[in-house]
Design a protein that fits this description.
The structure is a homodimer of 773-residue chains. By secondary structure, chain A is an alpha+beta fold. Helix content of chain A is 38%, strand content 16%. Chain A is elongated, with a radius of gyration of 32 Å. Chain A has four domains: 3-15 and 22-417, Creatine Kinase, Chain A, domain 2; 472-502 and 570-592 and 666-773, D-amino Acid Aminotransferase, Chain A, domain 1 (2-Layer Sandwich); 503-568, 2-Layer Sandwich (Dna Ligase, domain 1), CATH 3.30.1490.20; 596-661, no CATH class. Chain A is built from 27 helices and 24 strands. Chains A, B: It catalyses: gamma-L-glutamyl-L-cysteine + glycine + ATP = glutathione + ADP + phosphate + H(+); L-cysteine + L-glutamate + ATP = gamma-L-glutamyl-L-cysteine + ADP + phosphate + H(+). Chains A, B: In the N-terminal section; belongs to the glutamate--cysteine ligase type 1 family. Type 2 subfamily.
Chain lengths: 773, 773
């Protein structure tokens, strides 16, 4: 079986870079001064042991972040960044993540390191025995595990090119075994390039057993390794499985998973599963946390690892397989303990490997970043460019602890910079980003079925829910959304059920509309296209209209749509009620774009000041939009006798727009607690008559202090089946209403159940909806 | 209170023609030779006593058709026509409706007239007592009742102009009372113009008591009137109510509703309700069936009645109210018994009334048909233009019975001419027309909420269902339709659940799509825009493609959409499975437009022949589309070495299109019974995984005889959330599947329940769905 030739075959080529990835990243929680925190794992994270994304590792302070399995590196890093955002913002604003593999200063007394307070007693017991066997200090080291699976199409294509091995599963296992043995043989190269644990902080070592700095304490014999009597051979899967079993039987390992190696073969829950199912993927475990990357590992590193694994599959291995692996462990220990600024003793070998990798990539048409090989060669030529080298050099000025603290602080600030966004997914709609944040926090699997289309699959155990645009779900019936989409139908149904809607008529014919002039002429009324689009084609006559103006308005509306509505105009303030499952979760009042004078600054300056709010931006990427100073705003100012350089009086409010849309710079003001129950009841009842479960319904109310009993105090303008949520979550003024979390809990009611089971009642006050009887 | 002045007020004018209408029309069922039928009321009609549209009147053969209340005459006549269609097609093809008020030849023995076999014994008993009191023959007379209500805005506007009457309800009652008294006074005009029962048929009169022909037997004392000792005064509501109660008390009337008058005051279930609620509307009962109108009354007649009622409200009445009414009854009997071809003795009065009406209409800006007054004057000048005159003159050649039979036959043929349409609603989508037909037949209230948008409200007692486009309902969740709308998401979900879908990738970037050439080049594949529109931008490569062709195809697809799909091409036949509530209700195979040679005719002639099928037409107004002979068809012929004037061999099939869409002349072939259960199960299971309840899912199957166990025997192409239904109901070949009735029964399962309660099990075989275990 000539694997080199096989890899070069045209039938294999299209699939060479197909793979599946996953990252696990550990890290210690510290306070803002870089001290190990004394707090528990954050309560806002669903704290079940089996949280898919954010767990506790050995200690209560050690967070483990886990990505889902992805099919591209882009996706992988998107999820990794997003999970970091969730972790940071769930910890609250007094904590951050330590950016090094080596822990920060540890307590003097080992017992003060708190073992993770998990729910399952077995999990706690396992940690207790690790603590007995290795000491708690060593367990505080953190690292990155990189899970890698060759694409099935790739292995299938390779399999089809040979006839030596008849069994597909066996073939696959051999592929991974060869790659693994070569990885173990050459692991020193990873340690050289990406080793990043040169020095320990206070109280890590009980005595000065090690001559620091080195390249990687973590990857050396002083790091996270088994006792030397634990020996596992990689020459065959049978040997590997039986060796590990033997170690457990002899008591050298408490559990199979205690076997620490630079690579772990994976294929099931237990090592013994490998015998039945073969190797399904491998877990690279010798990656130190990259201090210079917010996520602890760079995209280029991952790209290197992928290419390196293809190279290792391609590259011939030594004849004596077990010796080959053993030599690798030996070389690695040497490199790990080298000074971070000295050239490695294997520099020549490293240069050869990198040259070969580059040739292979070219030959096989593998696309990689332009800078990958340049950077690799630089690191090889100049050890101060390696991660350990950089960290050590930075630490020469300050201490390593100070460097780490200031890096952590930077990461912390980035995570809090735009709290309405979810890093990795900022191209998606804000509501979807918020929903994904909450889903991750609650431990719900999030799969993006169509990114452009904002289409998510959420899964909690066997319970699957699909969500589009943040709140289009299985809970609403199709026809109820169609009802809301059609204003005439919505109005008819609400009217039939006794709600007040603006009187009016729909016209499909201009002559017929004109003949109805008498019906409206003397009252306040509005003319609008049936399907309105950003307010185009709308004319409002607050005191009736003469025939000429009526004709103009009708003609204008018909330019936008083949059907138009002429309706009674209702006086009052417009409120958006967000109704979810027969409860009012938020009420918002929207105020047209405006500024408040201070008697000193011009209107233009005041607009610029107001636009500096980080919540304001362009194109719906922020919860509020910047106020514009365009033609319409200037006209509006002119109408009030102002220009852009006028200076309004102190506390004077100047409006720049007639319409109150948030998209044209309007202010969103939460008034949920101020709106009386009787109006909330109208909103809930109306939504219920439309058969809707998730709905943003707009009411005009003249005076909320006047009881709603009199039907003439309000009017229902329209109902929206995909109401914007972010304007409630991040209002300009008033309390935030975390609607996306309400959606999550509505879709997955079992979450609240399970949290109360564990004694963690959800008590966040902004998660209260108004149930109206 | 000067009602004349009030009616001319500008605040009243806009509402003058606002009104609500309803029609009830009785008619005898006859066989195709015009003989009274001996069959029961059709079983296909839901036979509950309270059917809102199609009931039995006195006898089992007497059908009563009832429109819903409408706000325009257009709507009124649409429903009236539609209900006629349903009645005709429900009777089956051996029966028709007698087009005259006077019944056809009656049985010699009165007892052979069968009293309606109603479910409620009280209803049967009431008919028995009528039969005792008037004899069954007289009860066989049929007529039209025209229900009329002035628009509430009109009465409100009038009310606001006066201060004499403080109570709105009382004011309204006075409006109706005046109109009613004047109507009764001038009823002879209706009898003159629209009386249409000049002669009786055999066995109606026991002896020759009447000198036929007359204008209206029905409206004369020989017709449908109470015994002369029944006297009810109209001077006040109190008097009216107490008189009727008295008549019942005295036993002169069996029930209140036995009081026959040209106008009945309406306001509730019982006459006594009038006292509490006042008069809500009036029922004009003196309208003979118009033999010359398929629906028994013309639009112009209804227009006249509306205008006449406004005129009667406007017109001063006599000072002695009861005398005024009494005189009217007397005049009417005179006119009713005039010879249909002689001038009426009230010609001068009639002329005055018509002149006044015309002036009033002009003065009040009331728009009426241009021909209304011309026709009225013609009828006045020439009695042979009145309905009675026309019917009598036509009957001079043949007998009246023969004339009626041939008119009935014409109406019958019109009703069966396009069985896929519902008269009155032919502008709507075929599926919606079919659904409305079935709803009416099942006695479900149908309200059109938005006609252009095909939006219906269906109601059975308190149970309301909204339906758009025939099958968008409350049963499907919103997100499941969004899943189906997105091909990539649909495929992902089906693939995750182990169904075979074409392998492929979605691309949003042309370069990325081109780089993937190798993935597809050597296999059959298809390139298409993500959102396909009538097949634009699709390229199929059945044997792979070279790079140049691949590039062309990709470019073409990106012209249609910003996202494209490149997918494996599956060989086989495409089947459309219509799945409803986890059952397969229909399977269709679609064959591209084609003709079958006969060795004699040219292709062009054969196409014209095939297009003569009444099921074929243009623009989706028929279940099948005409085959075109355009550019594409000519190209396709050329490719096969044919021209339009080629003569294909006997039995040779020549295809004119590559694609099998029905919209481009394809044939629909029902294969429901031929498709094996295992493929039906795949369709049902796949739809279930998409969370859908109503779905048209397309499977490619290579050979239906090969069991589906092997996943490679089929592939799922797409799922449609608004699948066309009419192509299953009216297939080109194979059995019809009444999917709209399935939808009705799915939405209203109580229908099946109630039918079985009455012993009428639904046994129509085409209403069977395949439940697959």
């Amino acid at each position: 079986m000539d694997i080199k030739k096989m890899l070069e075959n045209d039938r294999v080529k299209p699939y060479l870079l197909k793979a599946r990835y996953g990252i696990e990243k550990e890290g210690q929680r510290v306070d803002l001064s870089g001290k190990l925190t004394k707090t528990d794992h954050p309560k806002s994270i669903s704290t079940r042991d089996e949280h898919p994304f954010i767990k506790r590792d050995f200690s209560e302070t050690q967070m483990e972040l886990i990505t889902p399995v992805t099919e591209t590196l882009d996706e992988l890093f998107n999820y990794l960044a997003a999970i970091h955002d969730v972790a940071y913002r769930s910890m609250g604003d007094n904590e951050m993540l330590w950016p090094l593999s080596m822990p920060p200063e540890l307590p003097e007394k080992e017992e003060d390191i708190v073992i993770a307070k998990l729910n399952n007693p077995e999990n706690v017991q396992y940690r207790q025995s690790l603590s007995n066997s290795y000491g708690r200090r060593k367990q505080m080291i953190s690292g990155i595990h990189f899970n890698f699976e060759f694409g099935d199409e790739l292995i299938q294509a390779l399999f089809n090119l040979q006839s030596e091995i008849k069994d597909y599963q066996q073939f696959k296992t051999e592929i991974y075994l060869k790659t693994t043995r070569n990885y173990l043989h050459y692991q020193w190269l990873i340690t050289y390039l990406y080793g990043a644990s040169p020095s320990s902080e206070k109280n890590f070592f009980e005595e000065d057993s090690l001559n620091e700095p080195v390249r990687s304490i973590r990857n050396s014999k002083y790091g996270y390794t088994n006792h030397s009597d634990v020996q596992v051979l990689h020459s065959s899967l049978e040997k590997y499985v039986s060796d590990i079993s033997l170690m457990v039987k002899r008591g050298l390992l408490v559990e199979e998973k205690e076997f620490y190696s630079a690579v772990r073969l994976r294929g099931g829950q237990h090592v013994s599963d490998l015998k039945c199912h073969g190797v399904r993927y491998i877990e690279l475990r010798n990656i130190d946390i990259n201090p210079f990357e917010k996520n602890g590992i760079s995209y280029e590193q991952a790209e290197f690892l992928h290419l390196f694994l293809i190279y290792l599959l391609w590259k011939d291995e030594g004849n004596h397989r077990d010796e080959w692996v053993k030599a690798g462990n030996f070389y690695n220990d040497l490199v790990a303990l080298e000074h971070p600024l000295e050239h490695t003793q294997f520099e020549g070998d490293a240069k050869n490997i990198i040259d070969e990798m580059e040739h292979l990539a070219e030959f096989l048409d593998l696309t990689v970043s332009d800078t990958l090989f340049i950077n690799l060669r630089q690191m090889l030529m100049d050890p101060s460019k390696t991660l350990a080298g950089r960290l050590y050099k930075d630490s020469e000025k300050d201490s390593q602890g100070q460097v780490a603290t200031s890096i952590a602080k930077e990461n912390y600030e980035k995570s809090w910079d735009k709290p309405y966004q979810l890093t990795g997914f900022t191209d998606m709609e804000l509501s979807t980003q918020n929903l994904m944040f909450d889903a991750i926090q609650q431990g719900i699997q999030v799969e993006i079925l169509d990114r452009q289309d904002q289409f998510l699959k959420l899964q909690l155990k066997d319970h699957v829910e699909f969500v589009k645009n943040g709140n289009m779900t299985s809970k609403d019936s199709y026809v109820s959304t169609l009802i809301m989409e059609n204003k005439t139908v919505t109005k008819k149904i609400l009217h039939q059920h006794g709600f007040r809607v603006p009187n009016g008529e729909e016209y499909n014919d201009i002559d017929y509309a004109l003949r109805s002039y008498d019906l409206f002429s003397s009252k306040p009324f509005v003319v609008k296209p049936k399907t309105t689009n950003y307010g185009l084609g709308i004319s409002i006559f607050k005191e009736g209209a003469n025939y000429e103006d009526y004709l103009k308005a009708i003609t204008l509306a018909f330019k936008e749509d083949s059907s138009i509505l002429v309706e009674e105009f209702l006086n009052g303030t417009e409120y958006r009620f967000f109704v979810l499952n027969d409860k009012v979760c938020a009420v918002l009042s929207r105020v047209p774009a405006n500024i408040k004078g201070d008697g000193k600054h011009t209107i233009e300056e005041l607009v610029m000041q107001k636009n500096r709010d980080p919540l304001r931006g362009r194109d719906h990427r922020t919860p509020l939009e910047s106020i514009q100073l365009g033609e319409l705003e200037n006209l509006m100012l002119k109408g009030q006798g102002y220009r852009m350089d006028s200076i309004p009086k102190n506390d004077e409010i100047v409006y720049l727009r007639e319409n109150s849309n948030i998209s044209t710079g309007g202010d969103s003001i939460d008034v949920t607690d101020q709106i009386p129950d009787d109006y909330k009841k109208i909103a809930v009842d109306a939504v219920s008559e439309l058969g809707a479960k998730i709905c943003g319904i707009d009411l005009i109310i003249e005076n909320t202090e006047v009881p709603a009993a009199n039907k003439n105090t309000y009017g229902i303008i329209e109902a929206n089946f995909n109401p914007s949520m972010y304007m409630h979550i991040y209002p300009y003024k008033g309390e935030s209403r975390r609607l996306t979390m309400h959606i999550i809990h509505y879709l997955f009611p079992e979450l609240l159940q399970s949290q109360s089971n564990y004694g963690y009642h959800y008590k966040n006050t902004d998660l209260q909806c108004y149930a109206v009887e």
